[in-house]
Amino acid sequence: LFIFRLKEHTKRFRNSGNFYNISLNFSDRQIENAIINLCRKNRIRKSCYIRPFYFVGQYGINLHVTKKAPTHVAIITFPFGDLFNKNGISATISKWRKFSDTSTPTQAKMGGNYLNSILATQDAKQRGFNEAILLDQSGDVSEAPGENIFLVKNNVLITPPLNSSALDGITRKSIITIAKDLGLKSKIRKIRKTELKLADEVFLSGTAAEITPVIKIDKKKIGDAKVGNITKLVTTAYSNIVMNKNKKYSHWL
User: Quick one: which of 73, 58, 64, 60 has its CA closest to 24?
Assistant: First the structure.
């Protein structure tokens, strides 16, 4: 049984509630053990998605939630294959903007934050694209509805900074580490939307999406409209890690 970066996911699970003063009344170890035991009892033998969530229990309609509010935890698992086509997807620059950190904490993985993502995804699907790309309130590239975004230019990986309203994604951080080990340069900086269409390669990253190549944005082909060499290199390295084929990263499992 291999669970990718369980400790990091559990830490983020707790910290997300802290933004809203919501207490998780279990230790990290208890949450981790519950997830592991659930997978074992369900005899998980193939790729699956694990979704833990917690919510305020009987508290009336008062919006003044405090750490004393009762909370409940639920964990679900379900079989999960590829979220997107690994041969590449199409994306569109969304008309919806990613919300600012002055509106709601962008680093919190909370259910309400996904309403923005739902709107962007619906719009992209209705217009015939596989996924959306959101800009931040200043018009710079932020992220996709459920994924971080990377572009490759001249063999350098570039991803937006957190002050572009991008989530500090666990897979995002993993890719930056992997890239360094592969001898690849990476930069975290602001990305203008025009840079995306001039990129040699573009890919998304996330727990569910893993590494997903983007081969077309709006009407513009990215590179030669095929999975790029850097994307292939990073994807292979990432896949080997999550399948425990690289002992250097066994502590991530």
Answer: 73
- Judge contact between 97 and 235, C-beta under 8 A: no
- Compute the distance between CA of residue 50 and CA of residue 77 in angstroms, rounded to an integer: 5
Residue 248 is among the residues annotated as catalytic for this protein = no
- Here the tokens at position 168 are 């500090």
pTM: 0.94
With residue 179 as reference, give the H or E element that holds it.
helix 170-181
Domains in the chain (CATH in brackets) are: 6-79 (3.30.470.10), 89-242 (3.20.10.10)
Locate tokens 């001039």: which residue?
198
Do the beta carbons of residue 232 and residue 214 sit within 8 Å? Answer: no
Check 46, 109, 197, 219 and give the catalytic one: 109
What single string gives the DSSP state of each residue in 65-126? Answer: --TTS-EEEEEEEEE---SS-TT-EEEEEEEEEPPPTTTS-TT---GGGHHHHHHHHHHHHH
| Interval 84-95: pLDDT, tens | 999 999 999 999
